[in-house]
Amino acid sequence: MDKDNIYQDYADFIFRYLLTLTNDEHAAEELTQETFYQAIKSIDNFHDNGKAKFSTWLCAIAKNVWLQEVNRTKKKHQLVNSLSDESTLFYNLEEEYFRNEDKINFFKKAHQLSETKREILYLRLLGDLSFKEIGSIFGETENWARVTFYRAKQQIRKDDTSYEP
Length: 165
Fold this sequence. Notes:
Blueprint: H1 6-22, H2 25-41, H3 54-111, H4 115-125, H5 131-138, H6 142-162
Helix pairs in contact: 1-2, 1-3, 2-3, 4-6, 5-6
């Protein structure tokens, strides 16, 4: 086998074979180069004993080179997806931290309210009770519970702005 003419004799054939596998001219060109690099490295392993044609041997190398590239691309995508999942996880943890900070600040402010306003706030927000139910607990009207809840919210908002420089 004349090593000097291998590329000239088979490059077009291997390129077309790889083009059918990849449907991408640029990728087929790159893989053709890699195929011939691998073939030259292992040309001593090819035995022309009449069982296999040289072109078949080159196609086997080309197919292996292509499969390696497919696996490399697949692993790259998995890594990118994994890193993207980690950044999403980090973002969710960061978001959760700020939500918890907001909760702590809310409860600190709620603690400053009168006992009645604080209890109405908790019953409405945490107990998910209606204003009618809250009013009946206190022996008051639904409207009283609504107004008291509104005033508690306003006081918390007012306290919120008092912390600004």
